[in-house]
Each structure stands twice: as C-alpha cells, then as structure tokens.
Amino acid sequence: MTDRVVQLVEDILPGIPLQVVSQGAEAVVFRTGVHPYTAHPSLTNPNQFIIKYRPSKKYRHPKIDASITKSRTAGEVKFMHRLAKAGINAPNVVSADFKRGLIWMEHLGEVLPSGEVSSFKNHLWSVERTRSPDECVSEDIQRICEQVGQLIGQLHHNDMIHGDLTSSNIVLQKKVPYLIDFGLSSYSGLAEDKAVDLYVLERAIQSTHSMYAYKYNQWLLKGYEAAYGTNKQNRRKYVEVMGKLEDVRQRGRKRSMLG
Where is the signal peptide (predicted)? Predict the structure, then answer.
C-alpha cells in the first residue's frame, strides 16, 4: 500500500522530496526539507517538515470517503490551531488541503545518538540503555516527566482530549516536550475523558519502562497537578479527574483479571 500512497502524494506534490516516516491505519506520514511557499519560515524548526496524508479508503463509497477525509483533515487542523492559540506545545500547521487529506506541518524532534527520533519513549529508553539506574531517576528525568505532565494538564484545562496519548506521541525538542498526532483528538470537559487520556499514557509508560514506571508516572501526575494551579475551581476539576482516573484504573484491572 505504501508504494501506491507515495506515488499518489508525489503526483499531488510534484518535485517535493518525500521520505516515509510512518504508516498507520488512517494516514501515512512523510518528512521533507521543503516548505511549500517560503525559504525562510519563522518556526521552531525551519528546516524540516512533516506531511500527513489520509489516503482514500476503497471500501467506502467515493462521496462518503471524500466527505470523511475532508472533515477529519479540517478537524485536525482546527484542533492544532486551537492548540497554538492556547499556547500548548505542538507543531505549527504550515499548509493544508482538506479535500485531498493533506496537512503540511512543522517537524519537531531531534535525532538521538541511537539514530531514533527524540520521542518521550525513545528518550527514556536511551537513558535506560546507556546510564546507571540512579541516573534513570535523576532530577533531569524528573524535570522532563513533570513538564510532560504539565503539558497534558494544559491540554485538559482547555477541555481538549488527545485521544491517543502514548509516549510515542510526545516528542522532545531541546528537552522541551511537544504533543503530536491529533487524528483522534476531540473536545470534552468531562473528567472521565481526561482520565482515560491519562490512563492510556500511564499504561504506555508501564509497558515500555516497567522498571522505572512508578517514578515516571508519579512525576507525570505531579506536573499534571501543577498545571491546575491553586485556584479553588481548578483544584476541584483536578480532584475530579483524579477520582475518575482511579475508576478507570479499577476497570482496567478487572479487564486484565477476566482476560
């Protein structure tokens, strides 16, 4: 499928060098060094860009498929625009073609010594592979974890839900965390939805960093709490989310026990 999709995107964007980064169920992600309309963009990373493409689904009626592609692409771009307005760390949108399902955005993240992109997950793995156990729970790691938690707290404080909040969908740029991939994102003021977001990340940390997961998750929630501040109304919202998080954990444990 990827070869066909690459050819489609090359036909849409002739002359633009493309490198496949990842392929998911809904979209294929490319990297390019070309900005669509300027040689000197004012961005955090002015040299590399991501192009996200939603290919058509042959099992859907063409008119329905076109409508879904346009709606989901527009929804993701609007979500990212709202993130920017709220001052929440995320890639800047450069350009979009809703009809064709294309989003051209800023590329964030760096290359780790291992050659991997500096996602939150890969950064922690890199530390765990190359440093002593004490260094894996150092003040530097604690600071990053708390910053990630605070970033998620800012997202939820604005009633925005990521929808796929794994440690792979958080990247570090100069050790500052940024959220990426908003294909499943939504808006909700419900504490339950925010708790599910947190639970997804908590489980991701447990499955990929089991030896240090307890500490990492502690620090994430410490940063998350800090994002709510000391305002009484915000504190009530925080307490409600934490209560729902425990409910979600209990449901998760029951599912695990029942298989």
Answer: none
Q: Catalytic: 164?
A: yes
Q: How many CA atoms lie within 13 A of 10 on its CB side?
A: 11
Structure tokens at 130: 């190359």
Largest CA distance in the chain: 57
Catalytic hit among 134, 164, 181, 247? 164
Q: Which domain holds residue 19?
A: 2-106
Could you give the number of structural domains in the chain?
A: 2
What's the pTM value of the predicted model, to 2 decimals? 0.93
Same domain, 45 and 172: no
Query: Counting beta carbons within 10 angstroms of the beta carbon of residue 174, is it exposed (0 to 12), middle (13 to 18) or buried (19 or more)?
Result: exposed
CB neighbour class for 160 (10 Å; exposed up to 12, middle 13-18, buried from 19): buried
> On the CB side of 232, how many CA atoms lie within 13 Å of its CA?
0
pLDDT single digits (tens) 53-112? 999 888 889 899 999 999 999 999 999 999 999 999 999 999 999 999 999 999 999 999
